[in-house]
């Protein structure tokens, strides 16, 4: 019920009362965020169940969409009540999910998918890294060109084959830094080893 009153400057007044019916109110669906995912290229799939992510306060039926900004990295498959994220190649992409109700209410959420893979051969490991720059000064930067998700042991040998320094990395898809400021100038050999592969490259310490 809504009432309005009008007054003039000589004390006259008038009232009017009327009812207001509010119809077709709508609250957009609600969403629960999804944490970023790291998937192994060879072994992992990630399934998102729509009802775990979206709900509608009004009880409306919700329809769903899913898309990615890089279809070369992951592929999306719709299932009954869910969407399946399948890795296709190494890399990183964003997956966006959208929930929509029949009255044009909508909401979205996005999460990052990082696709990695174990390296299983010496050749593949050798092609996955280099020391840059080389010669090195106080810090040796190992640039990783392919993601390695397993633990890596980094051994540094002198020209006589004597082990001088050892470091361990939990895995990296970027750059690993190893301090070498305590090494004398000369030629050294850097070995990277995983459970499945091994690679050795020569460096020059300034």
UniProtKB/TrEMBL annotation:
Keyword Signal applies: yes
Keyword terms of this UniProt record: Signal
Any matching Pfam family: Por_Secre_tail
Residue span, Secretion system C-terminal sorting domain: 131-204
InterPro entries associated with the record: Ig-like_fold (IPR013783), Secre_tail (IPR026444)
Protein name listed in UniProt: T9SS type A sorting domain-containing protein
């Amino acid at each position: 019920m809504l009432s309005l009153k009008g007054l003039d400057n000589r004390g006259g007044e008038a009232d009017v009362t009327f009812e207001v019916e509010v119809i077709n109110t709508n609250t957009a669906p609600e969403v629960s965020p999804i944490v970023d995912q790291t998937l192994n290229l060879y072994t992992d799939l990630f399934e998102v169940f729509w009802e775990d992510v979206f709900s509608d306060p009004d009880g409306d039926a919700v329809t769903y969409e899913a898309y990615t900004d890089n279809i070369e990295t992951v592929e999306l498959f719709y299932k009954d009540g869910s969407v399946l994220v399948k890795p296709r190649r190494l890399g990183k992409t964003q997956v966006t999910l959208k929930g929509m109700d029949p009255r044009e209410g909508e909401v979205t959420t996005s999460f990052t998918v990082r696709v990695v893979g174990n390296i299983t051969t010496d050749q593949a490991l050798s092609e996955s890294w280099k020391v840059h720059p080389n010669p090195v000064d106080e810090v040796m930067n190992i640039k990783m060109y392919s993601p390695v998700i397993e633990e890596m042991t980094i051994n540094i040998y002198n020209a006589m084959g004597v082990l001088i320094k050892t470091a361990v990395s939990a895995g990296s898809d970027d750059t690993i830094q190893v301090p070498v400021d305590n090494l004398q100038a000369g030629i050294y050999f850097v070995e990277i080893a995983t459970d499945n592969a091994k690679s050795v490259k020569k460096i020059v310490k300034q």
